[in-house]
């Protein structure tokens, strides 16, 4: 039986040199984005829940007219847009990391990430369109079917 040489583990304070890698470290930027967007998302979601569920009469007041009235304000449009974009990019980045960790073949990884990017892009584009083109009072609609904010 031959004895293998023991593996030497460097001290934790040892600084490693980056070999053969130049330019931007995208994985580090991804890691930093996940931390920053996570903190911002917590604040946005807690603010969203506070305004929608706790103020006034709470959840009983949430209906079509409530959302339509909220989206007449550029502030709430921007708030919801930021929440949508950050949540989709944050979640997509997390799923991308999982795909990189667990997909064994490069082809599977390519297909899964392609589907992820497609689904994320479609959701972001459609969500953005809904937030900015939403019209609760369409022209020519039956007035009895319109919400109270249209009268």
UniProtKB/TrEMBL annotation:
InterPro entries: SQR/QFR_C/D, SuccDH_FuR_B_TM-su
SUPFAM superfamilies, A to Z: Fumarate reductase respiratory complex transmembrane subunits
Keywords: Heme, Iron, Membrane, Metal-binding, Transmembrane, Transmembrane helix
Keyword S-adenosyl-L-methionine: no
Subcellular location: Membrane
The keyword rRNA processing is assigned to this record: no
Top-rank lineage group of the source organism: Bacteria
A single Gene Ontology CC term: membrane
Major subcellular location class: membrane
GO terms for MF: metal ion binding
Transmembrane segments: 32-55, 75-95, 115-134
CDD domains found in the cross-reference section: SQR_TypeA_SdhD_like (cd03500)
Protein name: Succinate dehydrogenase hydrophobic membrane anchor protein
Taxonomic lineage of the native organism: Bacteria, Bacillati, Actinomycetota, Actinomycetes, Micrococcales
